[in-house]
Recover the amino acids of this structure.
């Protein structure tokens, strides 16, 4: 009996919290809180309509709505319908919008009749909307939409979800999830910190006689949008005139979004191209081709208009003429190793926390290993928590993240974690993304730069002409098995245009989790 009472208490608490934070207020059953206070609306957009709309509103209505958004934003109100008893001074029935949350705030508009007013814009981040009706004549009421925009002196991005000072544009610090603050115009116009990159990303390294490396400008923070990069590498001959084989590998953090193109890698000689390959994604590793005598290795990349990841670092080494070069696996075998042909399958060699190469499961020894990034951890022991998240009992403090991309069920549910888990870097978090809608939904799980509190909840956005993308990230391991809903999480600090129905469904989802927990408590008491 006590357990049942606790269950209904949980139901009441969850539903009351939803009513206060919803972004839509089509309140057909009244427009006041039980304590008589104003309905509180938050988020990035929403709707409000009169009680019973589109049927006639009741007499003696007294409704109050306070819309509050983040600092640096203002509110825009657009009327879709208006049918309120007409009176010249709007003294009988009316809707009034005040420029702030208090009843003493300046009036922005007081409307009645059936003529739609012009859009109303606040000067700050809150408005108070009052609707009053008297005891007699009425109408269908009103229906309005509200949205937010940044204040005029601020820079707007993320569909107005983020507003920053103009001075924070082009400062080599990402403030906008859509990267609009660090777009290609920063480099093209030499704005702010980007003036330092006027020299571009061009290098011609000849007569290489030892190890070395090159990295893209601003590495490893993020790649400079719009910056074409081209590097040419040529080895120097040995003292006896013979040439070593030049081999290369992408080491450290690697991030080149395949949607923005690939790094083109070619080896050429005096007769033209000898071999070529490409590289993109979030995992580095060996360049699969090497440059032999008389050949040059060239790496070129022309990115999109927005930053596309960490960028990359290329580290090169030389395999002596009397050794066996196996660039596809990043190995160089000296004569004493006894290896005469490149192994067809080699174990995965990954970097440890100290950067030293570690190999396992092979009888081949004596090779020189090029470092790689992102540690793959096989045989991970997992336990399932009460919220169906997966916590890992083996591994370092860093987040261990299942990495996949595609439409298969394993990627969607995270069930394929197995040996494809990746240890994220200290400044990274595990991200899960849901791309598309309906029958065309794919998932992407990966290590990406750490997120703010806003991104710790499922947030969805749709850019013009692009698929809907929902994503969240976390610094723990629960992202591996998190299945996204395709709707904004109503518990997020700021909502992204959630409809009332979507918000209710999401809250009911949370309610079901709480109900299951209560049922478990009841069963434990029965036992």
């Amino acid at each position: 009996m006590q357990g049942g009472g606790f269950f209904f208490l949980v139901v009441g608490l969850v539903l009351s919290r939803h009513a206060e934070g919803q972004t839509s207020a089509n309140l057909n059953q009244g427009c006041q809180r039980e304590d008589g206070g104003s309905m509180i609306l938050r988020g990035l957009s929403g709707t409000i309509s009169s009680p019973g709309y589109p049927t006639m509103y009741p007499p003696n209505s007294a409704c109050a709505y306070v819309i509050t958004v983040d600092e640096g934003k203002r509110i825009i109100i657009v009327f879709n319908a208006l049918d309120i008893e007409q009176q010249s001074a709007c003294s009988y029935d009316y809707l009034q919008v005040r420029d702030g949350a208090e009843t003493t705030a300046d009036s922005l508009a007081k409307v009645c009749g059936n003529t739609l007013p012009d859009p109303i814009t606040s000067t700050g981040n809150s408005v108070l909307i009052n609707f009053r009706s008297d005891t007699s004549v009425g109408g269908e009421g009103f229906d309005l939409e509200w949205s937010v925009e940044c204040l005029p002196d601020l820079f707007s991005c993320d569909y107005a979800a983020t507003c920053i000072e103009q001075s924070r544009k082009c400062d080599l610090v990402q403030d906008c999830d859509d990267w609009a603050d660090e777009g290609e115009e920063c480099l093209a116009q030499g704005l702010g910190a980007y003036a330092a990159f006027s020299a571009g990303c061009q290098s011609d390294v000849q007569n290489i006689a030892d190890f070395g490396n090159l990295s893209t400008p601003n590495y490893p923070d993020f790649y400079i949008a719009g910056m074409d990069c081209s590097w040419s590498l040529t080895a120097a001959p040995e003292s006896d005139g013979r040439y070593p084989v030049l081999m290369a590998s992408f080491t450290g953090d690697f991030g080149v979004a395949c949607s923005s193109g690939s790094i083109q890698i070619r080896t050429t000689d005096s007769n033209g191209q000898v071999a070529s390959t490409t590289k993109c994604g979030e995992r580095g590793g060996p360049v699969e081709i090497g440059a032999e005598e008389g050949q040059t290795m060239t790496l070129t990349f022309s990115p999109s208009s927005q930053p596309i990841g960490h960028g990359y670092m290329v580290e090169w080494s030389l395999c002596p003429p009397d050794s066996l070069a196996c660039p596809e696996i990043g190995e160089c075998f000296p004569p004493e190793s006894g290896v005469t042909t490149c192994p067809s399958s080699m174990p995965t060699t990954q970097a440890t926390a100290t950067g030293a190469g570690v190999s396992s499961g092979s009888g081949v020894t004596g090779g020189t290993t090029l470092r790689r990034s992102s540690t793959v951890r096989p045989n991970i022991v997992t336990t399932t928590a009460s919220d169906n998240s997966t916590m890992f009992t083996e591994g370092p403090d860093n987040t261990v993240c299942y990495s996949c991309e595609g439409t298969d069920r394993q990627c969607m549910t995270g069930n394929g974690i197995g040996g494809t888990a990746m240890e994220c870097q200290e400044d990274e978090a595990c991200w899960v993304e849901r791309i598309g809608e309906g029958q065309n939904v794919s998932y992407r799980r990966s290590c990406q730069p750490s997120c703010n509190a806003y991104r710790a909840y499922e947030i969805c956005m749709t850019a013009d002409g692009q698929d809907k993308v929902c994503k969240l990230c976390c610094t723990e391991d629960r992202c591996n098995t998190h299945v996204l809903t395709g709707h904004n999480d109503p518990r997020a600090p700021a909502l992204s245009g959630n409809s009332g129905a979507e918000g209710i469904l999401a809250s009911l989802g949370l309610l079901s989790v709480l109900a299951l927990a209560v049922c478990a408590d009841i069963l434990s008491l029965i036992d």
Notes: Residues 500-526 form the longest helix (27 residues). The longest strand covers residues 73-83. The CA atoms of residues 125 and 152 lie 13 Å apart.
